[in-house]
Amino acid sequence: MRKRMVVVEGSYAVAHAVKVCKPNVISAYPITPQTHIVEDLSQFAADGEMNCEYMNVESEFSAISALIGASAAGARTYTSTTSQGLALMHEALFNASGMRLPIVMTVVNRALSAPINIWNDQQDSISQRDTGWIQLYAEDVQESADMTPQLYKIAEDEDILLPAMACMDGFILSHVYEPVILLEQSLTDEFLPDYTPEFVLDPKNPMSFGAFADPSTYTEFRYKQEKAMGVALKRIEEVALEFSEKYGRYYGGLLDGYMLEDAEIVIMAMGSVIGTIKDTIDMLRKEGENVGLLKVRSFRPFPADEIRKALKNAKVVITLDKNISVGKNEGALCTEVKACMYNNRDVLAPVIGFMLGHGGRDIPVSTIVKMINKAKLVEKGIFIESEFADLREDLA
Amino acid sequence: MSLLKPGHRGCAGCCDALAGKFVLDALGEDCIVVSPTGCLEVFTTPYPESAWGVPWIHSLFENAAAVASGVEAAFKAMGKMNNTKIIAIGGDGATMDIGLQAISGAFERGHDFTYICVDNEAYMNTGIQRSSGTPMYASTTTSPAGKVSFGNPLNKKNMPAIIAAHGSPYVATASVAYAPDMIRKVKKAAQIKGPTYVHVHAPCCTGWKFEGSKTIEVGRLAVETALWPLYEMENSEITGVRKIKNRKPVEEYLKAQGRFKHLFTMEGGAEEIKKIQATADWNVKHFGLD
Amino acid sequence: MKLIIKTVAKPGSTRANKTGAWRSFMPVFDHKLCSKCGICAIYCPEGVVHKLENGFFEPDYEYCKGCGICANECPKKAIIMVLEGK
User: Fold this and answer.
1) For residues A76 and A24, is the Cβ–Cβ distance under 8 A?
2) Helices A60-72 + B100-109 axis angle, to 10
3) Is B161 helix (H, G, I), strand (E, B) or coil?
4) In 10 A of CB A351, how many CB atoms?
5) SS3 state of residue B184
6) Interface predicted TM-score (ipTM)
7) Do C3 and A220 touch (CB under 8 A)?
8) Can you tell me whether residue A265 is helix, strand or coil?
9) pTM confidence score
């Protein structure tokens, strides 16, 4: 049966996906470019299409805090934010993960101030890397929507119980109109089981949440969070396959390859830039160049083993980062890909890091071709460790 | 037996433990307690132990009201909101300083919950630093009395008035030294629909520097000198006041505590005490305490 | 080993911690002076002053920290604080 496609805004597709996951509590604060998601959800609530409490809170900090309470009370919870809002949540993100509350949040990726900028890069979610949240990055609108039930299923797994971020590039995905298949309620009901945690706030079984852990107990909380991320590594793959069986769509689990098998130059990236890279590869392949793509879908947990396996035949690896660790002159993907290879000499390919697309700067095919050309110079002994790929000479 | 179980690590004579006990005496088993960071949170729940005999959650320092509102929303959404009372119990710092925004949001949204501020007038858990609940001329570790200072130079923030301005249906002040009054007010606050507030004066023997046996005595003096008026407000109107018989001069309250000792030894201290007396006199007039 | 740590603590489990060991002064209740008003029980921060079957009150010395509030508040002065070990 051919499924009906509709042309909708990315934010609507995501809001609709949230609706069919039937969250009990949604709590959010408006911030560009996340606004359309919460507006659409508010409308669903106003039209009686959602059986949930929609909370208009006074800040992102209270948005996530309210969900901590709601999740501990046994509710399925959702919020969405971006950039400054995500940064404001920072303290509570650690708390949600440490308390093992499977909150799902769409992060509509946007640059951080200063200078203030509302456009896309991934500095916001990358900066929350160590908060203990699962982070998946979507390539297009359909994947951004489809990630939502996948993440609930992963986050709420009783051997995981970690909060999760579905990261989608601001404007590029949130505000674009694309033909998509809206998630069917009936399929989602079959795909996503109810959330039935073992412990909830309940006067009939009065447990204490968020106790004070001293040096004799604290370490094991961290250890078990890490172990849960290890379980998530498997579940992300499995759930992507289960989703594919049910809905007929697949975007990779932890990673996804494109023209990867025989590629000598492999580009690694996350998010909406994947589409441009695929176009570039199609073009270069016609010219006989062995270029391929390794899409990183899961940044946390970080699939180190799978990356090493996927890069076995690579001669040069290029990483693309829409973020920078200022003072390291590298983006996070570059640093982590290099780090995961060092102790395991299966992969000997050098890694070149490119930072680009900051604050919404466009990434055209020409920029990607330029990077590939620089990667070819490695053979001739000219090696770049890491650099900005799209600087304006007149301002730099 | 109290629902706040013994074995907790509160100081001998702890006002917070008393406040926690009175709150649970008022509410019984069918409640959920949210605690922000603070003494009460730390000394009752050293993992894997907990003194709480009711469901309890601690998240962070500044978000108790938001967490409580989320619990309430979840209970409503899941049809579990029968008679269960949702309560946040925070200290003066968590309430009047760092948590003020979340409290304002939760009261404005109108959640059905009760926020109880247990006000011991400084950050006791971190070692007696000044908060906006610290009264004028109290010596704390960050507003110490010194050669050129009488201690905290600022007046205490009027938190009940701020909450009342949100249109809360019930705001009351209470004191751990007046247990039946406090228990009655907490019970009433919990029974009234909507966001309600009880501000409890809680003398801290460690921070205020008096013997642990004097916790109740010092609390009583605050009320008897009119420095801590006991009143109730319904929909922003004062509806109940505890009158004072034989009002005492503020010196009796001040001299009972080490944190005001400098006022009796420093030159000019007597003049400054007059300012504190003026605050008490204003309370008497404003609330009609005589 | 279960992968999920129990991030929750059991209700009332601080009872494992016998705080009576903190005490330097011990409250001694004189039933001859006691009027059975129960103020000692109300204001015990540990909640461990119990009413006996005969209507008098006694603290649970396993947990009593010896703060002395009960003695200070007793209207009949029926509770005295005695140095531990004497």
Assistant:
1) yes
2) 70
3) helix
4) 23
5) helix
6) 0.96
7) no
8) strand
9) 0.97
